């Protein structure tokens, strides 16, 4: 879910073509959840194979990532590791919310209710072999897959700060807190999207957010941005009731840091020091390898079609597009692979 900082940072809409030649470190869990949410039938039912396994995420990684490569984008996929212990309470709360949404989805679906899709999306969760299957598919497609020791966005931000990627690809703003110089949103979800529960379609554009220019405009430091996030609420704490991004900004600029803001509001935040350190000095590994390989065409087809009942004609066409796009525009094959 991430922290809500959308009201503070300028989000520049761009075309995917403007990212041609750019390496993007993608938060794989964030993207996987996105695919689980949006790749569904009208009543909210996800794509399922004959074994009862959900395959919406695999469809997204195949077709939508191929679209990115056709635009000249070079994706790296970074997966979460072990979350910090103080995140457990939030994770349990989310689990409860998803379970409740699942019940409401079943009720709406049974009566053909208009809100079935909304509740289905809210019930999305990772289960079974989803992570392992996603990693396997991405590696077969030739993409670098990096396992983070803890939070994937922190590792992706570290890769971008090292200059090994132009930006972090994520729907959340947390990557900014981890120090990502640039965040790209809606990377794999551009185009028309129907709003859940409404007969309204909106155009979803790719957005770029720059950390340093945003901090200068707000006249704050990254440390103060983290304090703002703590007041608003993050993946690790619920925030202070009644405080949104703009109010949090005023409090931090007034007091300089979160301690004064908490004193004025008469509140406190559990694990505040640990959460601060998590964002400013995250657990990441410097030992990662970024290397693109030639797509293993036959293996991709075997995995998706034989194991998960995908259409062989459609998968074969997508793989052909992927191979062609991977080679296109490169001076030599070695420069890409």
Automatic annotation (TrEMBL):
Bound how, and how many: what does the cofactor note say? Binds 2 magnesium ions per subunit. They probably participate in the reaction catalyzed by the enzyme. May bind an additional third magnesium ion after substrate binding.
InterPro entries from the UniProt entry: 5-3_exonuclease, 5-3_exonuclease_C_sf, Flap_endonuc, Flap_endonuc_arc, HhH2, PIN-like_dom_sf, XPG-I_dom, XPG/Rad2
Location of region: N-domain = 1-98
Keywords (A to Z) from UniProt? DNA damage, DNA repair, DNA replication, Endonuclease, Exonuclease, Hydrolase, Magnesium, Metal-binding, Nuclease
Which residues does the annotation say bind Mg(2+) 1?
A: 27, 80, 151, 153
Q: Which SMART domains match?
A: 53EXOc, HhH2, XPGI, XPGN
Q: Which residues form the 5'-3' exonuclease domain?
A: 21-291
One record GO biological process: DNA replication, removal of RNA primer
Annotated Mg(2+) 2 binding sites: 172, 174, 235
List the EC numbers from the record.
3.1.-.-
Which co-factor is required? Mg(2+)
Which parts of the sequence belong to the XPG-I domain?
Answer: 139-220
Domain XPG N-terminal, by residue range, is: 1-101
What is the uppermost EC class here? hydrolase
Q: Which GO terms describe its molecular function?
A: 5'-3' exonuclease activity; 5'-flap endonuclease activity; DNA binding; magnesium ion binding
Assembly behavior = Interacts with PCNA. PCNA stimulates the nuclease activity without altering cleavage specificity.
| Function as written in the Swiss-Prot or TrEMBL entry | Structure-specific nuclease with 5'-flap endonuclease and 5'-3' exonuclease activities involved in DNA replication and repair. During DNA replication, cleaves the 5'-overhanging flap structure that is generated by displacement synthesis when DNA polymerase encounters the 5'-end of a downstream Okazaki fragment. Binds the unpaired 3'-DNA end and kinks the DNA to facilitate 5' cleavage specificity. Cleaves one nucleotide into the double-stranded DNA from the junction in flap DNA, leaving a nick for ligation. Also involved in the base excision repair (BER) pathway.
**What does the similarity note say?**
Belongs to the XPG/RAD2 endonuclease family. FEN1 subfamily.
What's the name of the protein?
A: Flap endonuclease 1
| Gene that encodes the chain | fen
């Amino acid at each position: 879910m991430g922290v809500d900082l959308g009201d503070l940072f300028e989000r520049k809409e761009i075309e995917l073509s403007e990212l041609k030649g750019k390496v993007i470190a993608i938060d794989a869990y964030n993207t996987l959840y996105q695919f689980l949410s949006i790749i569904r039938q009208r009543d909210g039912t996800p794509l399922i194979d004959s074994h009862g396994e959900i395959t919406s995420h695999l469809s997204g990684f195949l077709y939508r990532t191929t679209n990115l490569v056709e635009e000249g984008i070079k994706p790296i996929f970074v997966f979460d590791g072990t979350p910090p212990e103080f995140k457990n309470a939030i994770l349990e709360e989310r689990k409860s919310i998803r379970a409740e949404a699942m019940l409401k989805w079943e009720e709406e679906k049974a009566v053909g209710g208009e809100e079935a899709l909304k509740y289905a999306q809210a019930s999305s969760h990772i289960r079974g072999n989803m992570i392992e299957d996603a990693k396997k598919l991405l590696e077969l497609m030739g993409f670098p897959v990096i396992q983070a020791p803890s939070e994937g966005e922190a590792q992706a931000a570290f890769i971008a700060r090292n200059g090994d990627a132009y930006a972090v690809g994520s729907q959340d703003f947390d990557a900014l807190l981890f120090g990502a110089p640039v965040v790209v949103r809606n990377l794999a979800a551009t185009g028309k999207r129907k709003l859940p529960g409404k007969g309204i379609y909106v155009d979803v554009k790719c957005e770029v957010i720059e950390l340093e220019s945003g901090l200068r405009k707000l006249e704050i430091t990254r440390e103060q941005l983290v304090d703002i996030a703590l007041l608003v609420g993050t993946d690790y704490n619920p925030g202070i009731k009644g405080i949104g991004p703009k109010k949090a900004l005023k409090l931090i600029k007034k007091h300089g840091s979160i301690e004064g803001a908490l004193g004025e509001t008469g509140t406190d935040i559990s694990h505040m020091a640990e959460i601060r350190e998590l964002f400013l000095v995250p657990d990441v590994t410097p030992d990662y390898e970024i290397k693109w390989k030639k797509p293993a065409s036959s293996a991709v087809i075997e995995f998706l079609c034989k194991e998960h009942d995908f259409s062989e004609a459609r998968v074969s066409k997508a793989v052909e597009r992927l191979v062609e796009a991977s080679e296109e525009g490169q001076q030599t094959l070695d420069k890409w692979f």
